Amino acid sequence: MLFFILLAWALPTYSLTVLPLISTAISAPPDTITVVPPSRYHLKTCVVGGGHADKEGLYASGFHIGAGINDVTLEGIEVASIGFLNGTYQQFDYGTPFPWGLNMGGADNYAAWEFALVDTGFGSEGFFFNSSGLQWTETEGGFSGWLACDWWHGAPQLFWKYYFYDYPIPSSCVQVNLMPVAVWEGSEATDCMV
Ligand SMILES: *[C@@H]1O[C@H](CO)[C@@H](O)[C@H](O)[C@H]1NC(C)=O
Ligand SMILES: *[C@@H]1O[C@H](CO)[C@@H](O)[C@H](O)[C@H]1NC(C)=O
């Protein structure tokens, strides 16, 4: 294993086809190993650093706020959205003939955290997974993690944190990882890995 890690470090563009679930990053930073998610998955919160048990083990769900627009609430698995990665688009399957994608709002309003939306279309480009779950490579490098906060839909809501404004977060908010949990027929999957 160490050999492969060293190889990945030395040759960042070399494709490690011998490791079934791991390949080197394409658009990700060179010190990051990209993980291939299951073909269809739910996105499950794992609280970073412990605490905030009420934000742990929740699933990303589209909350309709207008025609073709959803906020992302964090709720029980029974309403979890089914996601899949299409290239670098984080898409969702809502059984419609047209696509839905995760759209990273804001970043031009001088705010320290921003909405994550699921809209019609493919959404924002630049998503990938590593062992900390779903990541976003944004051109200016402004993504610095996911926040789960109590907000206005009666369930915790997903936001993303903007690196350049590192203000204190509200006390209901906590940083979470979004781990891909395979959608299996009639069952749910694993515990938090972090
Ligand atoms: C996953 O990627 C993010 C964003 O590039 C990075 O901050 C984090 O350290 C990575 N996690 C691991 C385990 O490499
Ligand atoms: C995946 O993305 C491409 C565009 O990059 C699009 O043409 C294709 O329809 C998408 N697949 C699905 C299942 O939405």
UniProtKB/TrEMBL annotation:
Does the entry feature the keyword Signal, yes or no?
yes
Say if the entry is tagged with keyword Signal. yes
Q: Where does the source fall among the domains of life?
A: Eukaryota
Q: Domain named DUF7907: which ranges?
A: 39-181
Q: Which InterPro entries match?
A: DUF7907
Q: Where is the signal peptide?
A: 1-15
Keywords assigned by UniProt, alphabetized: Signal
Q: What is this protein called?
A: DUF7907 domain-containing protein
